[in-house]
Amino acid sequence: MPNTKSRKLFDRISPVYGRLYERQHKNYTRIFKEMDQCNLSHFSTILDVGCGSGAMACVFTEMGLTTFAMDQSWGMLRVAKSRHENENVRFCRGRIESGLPFPENSFDIVIASFVAHGIDAKQRLELYEEMRRVGKHLAILHDYNGVRSLSTSIAEIAEGGDYFNFIRNVKGELKNYFGNLEIIETEKRSCCYVCNVG
Q: Hey, which of 5, 67, 175, 190 would disulfide with 60, CB 3.0 to 4.6 Å?
């Protein structure tokens, strides 16, 4: 999430994410190592945009991927770097609207997990543009699929993101921007929106 308000929010709540690390790691293991349709291990490099606690990045390193992970929150990066499991992840700080700090075609895969729903349509297009610029093969959003719970709605209203517009528009945005889209259901309320780059 690229604005100062959300960065400060995630700086404050980063210790909570730290306590959820094991649960997140287990969930990402199930999605990316155990589900055949989400297994990315035949690629070599990946960038995790909005890496949070680093749990997903850790799973990618366990799969043998050279993993870079970026977040705008210093608090989240501290949590991620404090985990010994993440010693092989290359972390950096960055913001989408400043451009991803990598040259074109740097990564086989660029993924953003639960980032796109928290930013507005203009910022999402900036995210897609940067994912396409630095990616070589796949751009993936791992995010909500439209099956809501009351707690999700309350949390997203409190966060001040663009959850409701994201749910209404993400499929059309991605098809218009990348020209292709595959949706892989991962949980009751989430999926991977997978686009080929190029």
A: 67
Could you report the per-residue pLDDT of 166-176, keeping only the tens digit for each? 999 999 999 99
CATH number, domain of 121, equals 3.40.50.150
Number of domains composing the chain? 1
Compute CA distances 190 → 108, 117, 152, whole Å: 23, 11, 11
Q: Is 180 helix (H, G, I), strand (E, B) or coil?
A: coil
Range of the domain at 138: 4-196
For residue 110, the Cα-to-chain-centroid distance in whole angstroms is: 8
* Residue 57 near residue 92 (C-beta atoms within 8 A): no
Nearest alpha carbon to residue 184 among 10, 32, 57: 32
Give the full edge-to-edge strand order of the sheet including 135-144.
90-93, 66-71, 45-49, 107-113, 135-144, 190-196, 182-187
